[in-house]
């Protein structure tokens, strides 16, 4: 190790993620390591999680003091994660003082639990001051919920960070939002991930208003957007804002609001989720909204339909296929929406898509399976329900396909016949 140049040792130290080890252990090896441990390049993977929610006051005080040293002396942190649900007043004072004295570069801020404690406002104000002194945090993960005062501080922090953040992850609970971020700008925000903190559907106005303002702020830079499967866009504002994100490359969303797909012309990956109490009307609305959409750049399509029996999602898939004629990867999960008509529509799409390389089908029939087996694919995954009288024929077709393409394709095909045992073929 002594003979290695500094650049090699710095590269090795850059894999150390424990900020405490870099601060307290590495410098004790020798004077050379002491010098290298102070180099910013050694801290590119360093992470610090500040826990101040322990019930033992003395132990929590010790942790806050130890973490304060890292914040004061670390030249850089890849991720700073703050959890202070039960922070006491002395710990708040110490943590705020540490944040005010910190001069390190922070790439990612994670604030999963700064929402309900009385310390939220003071700590978040300190974070705002820290960001103001040294902008450049590229990723922000925030839980939005709790009291109105804490939310106001969080919106202030988000607004302060948005001009420099490249990734924003929001875990949304019960929020109160009007226009706090209406004038925000996010010129470099490329990724927006929106997750849910509860199992309920997010249909309320505050969520859609917040989403609309965020999408407007990053309309020219956004490349990747992930929305919850249960988040139905029922108002015009978020749909219009989403349609303005013309550079969007990947999108995951509920089918309610699919009219926005007329905007992004560079979309390459789309995950569409259909789940509601009235699927028939949803299918008709999606088919109508997709009319005239141009998704020529789309290469990867995933369609998931949940829980519904006797409904036909085939027409939706046909409409998507017409809008996106050059798919390479197709994934369809019908669940209990399977019907013979749906199976025929899926077969039609498979035969029309000439550039397919990967196919994944769940809960389809023998017609769709036969269409899959006519194509040369790199990867095929099928879970099919086969009529008993067609079981032997379908099994022979799968075995023949396996022999023909086993060197060039990976396959996992499950055949479940009616009133018979399941057969599973993998290679």
From TrEMBL:
Superkingdom field: Eukaryota
InterPro entries: F-box-like_dom_sf, F-box_dom, LRR_dom_sf
Gene3D superfamilies: 1.20.1280.50, Ribonuclease Inhibitor
Pfam families: F-box-like
Stretches assigned to the F-box domain: 1-46
SUPFAM superfamilies in the record: F-box domain, RNI-like
Protein name: Uncharacterized protein LOC113214256
Origin species: Frankliniella occidentalis (Western flower thrips)
Gene: LOC113214256
């Amino acid at each position: 190790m002594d003979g290695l140049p500094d650049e090699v040792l710095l590269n090795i130290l850059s894999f150390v993620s424990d900020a405490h080890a870099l601060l307290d252990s590495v410098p004790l090896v020798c004077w050379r390591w002491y010098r290298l441990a102070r180099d910013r390049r050694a801290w590119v993977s360093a992470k610090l999680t500040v826990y101040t929610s322990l019930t033992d006051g003395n132990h929590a005080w010790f942790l806050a003091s130890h973490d304060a040293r890292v914040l004061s002396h670390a030249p850089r942190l890849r991720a700073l994660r703050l959890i202070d649900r039960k922070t006491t007043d002395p710990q708040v004072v110490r943590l705020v003082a540490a944040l005010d004295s910190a001069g390190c570069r922070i790439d990612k801020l994670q604030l999963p639990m700064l929402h309900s404690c009385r310390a939220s406002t003071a700590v978040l104000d300190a974070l705002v001051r820290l960001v103001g002194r040294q902008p450049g945090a590229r990723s922000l993960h925030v839980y939005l919920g709790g009291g109105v005062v804490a939310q106001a501080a969080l919106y202030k922090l988000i607004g302060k960070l948005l001009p420099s953040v490249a990734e924003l992850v929001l875990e949304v609970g019960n929020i109160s939002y009007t226009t706090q971020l209406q004038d925000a700008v996010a010129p470099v925000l490329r990724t927006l991930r929106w997750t849910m903190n509860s199992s309920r559907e997010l249909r309320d106005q505050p969520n859609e208003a917040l989403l609309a303002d965020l999408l407007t702020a990053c309309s020219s830079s956004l490349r990747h957007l992930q929305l919850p499967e249960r988040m139905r866009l029922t108002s015009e504002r978020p749909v219009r804002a989403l349609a303005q994100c013309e550079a969007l490359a990947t999108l995951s969303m509920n089918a309610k609001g699919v009219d926005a797909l007329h905007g992004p012309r560079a979309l390459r990956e789309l995950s569409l989720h259909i789940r509601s109490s009235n699927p028939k009307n949803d299918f008709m609305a999606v088919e109508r909204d997709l009319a005239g959409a141009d998704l020529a750049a789309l290469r990867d399509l995933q369609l998931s339909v949940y829980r519904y029996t006797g409904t036909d999602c085939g027409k939706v898939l046909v409409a998507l296929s017409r809008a996106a004629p050059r798919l390479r990867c197709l994934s369809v999960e019908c669940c209990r929406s399977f019907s013979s008509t749906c199976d025929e529509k899926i077969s039609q799409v498979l035969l029309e898509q000439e550039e397919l390389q990967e196919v994944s089908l769940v809960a389809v029939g023998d017609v769709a399976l036969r269409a899959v087996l006519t194509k040369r694919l790199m990867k095929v995954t099928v879970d099919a329900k086969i009529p008993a009288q067609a079981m032997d024929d379908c099994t022979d077709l799968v075995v023949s396909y396996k022999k023909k393409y086993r060197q060039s394709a990976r396959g996992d095909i499950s055949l479940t016949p009616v009133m018979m045992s399941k057969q599973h073929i993998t290679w």
